[in-house]
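Q: What residues go here?
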């Protein structure tokens, strides 16, 4: 078993996380159950943040909350001194309810509505990451009518896309996000924005991809952007206070993945930004990054109970669990790979290779193909690792399956931070056509 964070096997052969026996947690809270190893989230956050501090760089590490957005999670991000990225009114609302410091909230998205932008002005958040000309016009209009200043970053597409191991240099960027750096749209956006009386352009933002295992994509993007900034300093007298290089730092889902430590990404980024700004005799900007997956991904574990087992002789054995694409859609959506163990008997020898089926009415609802396991019997507990990012946040009620609870574990204590959805919750928004005939 590859172990993440505080995960360990106790003397009973049970999986333990945050010093708590997972079998006991399953008995107490039921299954499926999402667990988060809080100490590991803190460790990841500090890995990013302390590297900037150590190297004397003014920075913001913003948690991309779409990876897992909840009141408790945002409060944990606050405790660790992180900033926060939101991408919708709903995430902003959650941040407000969490009491998150508004000046450290950044608002992303390629189609923010007027209502969402008004909400950002009402809350007076730290900055809006402006994505397109339509949005720039809206921000200008709202800021003028309120006579309220708003800081923005311009989201640009630098013409570099990272696809895990490959970097694709594109001339004309084919992306729904941001202003293109190559075709002049980014400059046009900058010229437009700096003339607006209530808009304060802090700098530039880019996000080149996700699940990236090397530093090359980030350093290439930094180099390209700083080159452009040098040009803009000369011709437009614009100096960027902030350079935001986005998120996308990879994590280990399976043995195939070989990510770097947070510190390694940060060190390389800082080195490159220093080198390039010195080359052009520019001031060092603040560096902002936006990790999502790499802060919460490997801290999350989903616990399922095994149910039916279907053996198709000479083909494969299906072991079904009590959740599936309703609580983790990533295997169905992206063919995402995961590892898992039997949490109630981790030390038992592997005896067979099985495939883990979800319970949704969809043949594609398979969580893991070809997983080596001890012989699984009905009532075993399956712990699937690394489900902390884009698991709960993409959970849904397909087949009217209630969403599982989320429990934080740390220092031997467990705390429910999202309760289990009930059948009553499921019909809360339904309005009947007629009063039901009770019998
Ligand atoms: C999704 C996203 C992130 C976070 O990506 P991860 O792969 O989870 O680190 C950061 N910034 C922006 C703009 C994003 O869209």
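A:
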């Amino acid at each position: 078993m590859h172990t993440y964070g505080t995960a360990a096997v106790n003397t009973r052969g049970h999986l333990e996380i945050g010093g708590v026996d997972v079998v006991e947690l399953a008995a107490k809270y039921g299954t499926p159950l999402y667990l988060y190893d809080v100490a590991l989230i803190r460790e990841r956050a500090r890995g990013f943040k302390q590297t900037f501090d150590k190297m004397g760089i003014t920075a913001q590490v913003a948690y991309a909350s779409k990876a897992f957005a909840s009141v408790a999670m945002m409060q944990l991000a606050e405790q660790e001194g992180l900033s926060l990225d939101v991408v919708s009114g709903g995430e902003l609302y959650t941040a407000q309810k969490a009491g998150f410091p508004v000046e450290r909230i950044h608002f992303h998205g390629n189609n923010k509505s007027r209502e969402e932008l008004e909400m950002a002005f009402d809350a007076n958040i730290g900055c809006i990451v402006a994505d397109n000309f339509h949005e720039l016009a809206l921000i200008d209009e709202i800021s003028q009518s309120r006579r309220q200043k708003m800081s923005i970053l311009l989201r640009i597409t630098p013409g570099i896309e990272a696809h895990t191991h490959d970097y694709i240099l594109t001339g004309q960027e084919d992306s729904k996000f941001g202003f293109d750096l190559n075709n002049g749209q980014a400059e046009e956006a900058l010229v437009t924005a700096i003339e607006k009386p209530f808009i304060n352009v802090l700098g530039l933002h880019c996000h080149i991809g996700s699940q990236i295992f090397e530093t090359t994509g980030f350093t290439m993007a930094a180099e390209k952007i700083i080159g452009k900034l040098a040009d803009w300093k000369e011709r437009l007298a614009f100096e960027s206070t902030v350079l935001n290089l986005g998120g996308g730092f990879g994590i280990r889902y399976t043995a195939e993945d070989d990510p770097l430590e947070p510190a390694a990404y940060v060190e390389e980024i800082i080195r490159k930004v220093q080198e390039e700004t010195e080359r052009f005799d520019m001031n060092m900007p603040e560096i902002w990054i936006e990790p999502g997956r790499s802060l919460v991904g490997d801290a999350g574990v989903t616990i399922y109970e095994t149910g039916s087992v279907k053996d198709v002789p000479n083909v494969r054995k299906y072991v079904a669990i009590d959740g599936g694409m309703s609580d983790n859609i990533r295997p169905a959506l992206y063919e995402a790979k995961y590892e898992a163990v039997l949490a109630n008997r981790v030390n038992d020898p592997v005896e067979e290779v099985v495939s883990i089926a979800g319970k949704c009415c969809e043949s594609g609802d398979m969580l893991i193909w070809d997983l080596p396991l001890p012989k699984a019997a009905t009532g075993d507990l399956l712990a699937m690792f690394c489900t902390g990012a884009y698991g709960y946040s993409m959970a849904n009620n397909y087949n009217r399956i209630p969403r599982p609870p989320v429990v934080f574990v740390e220092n031997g204590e467990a705390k429910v931070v999202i309760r289990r959805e009930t059948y009553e919750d499921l019909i809360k928004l339904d309005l009947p056509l007629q009063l039901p005939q009770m019998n």
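A: Context that may help when evaluating the design: The mean pLDDT is 96. The radius of gyration is 24 Å.
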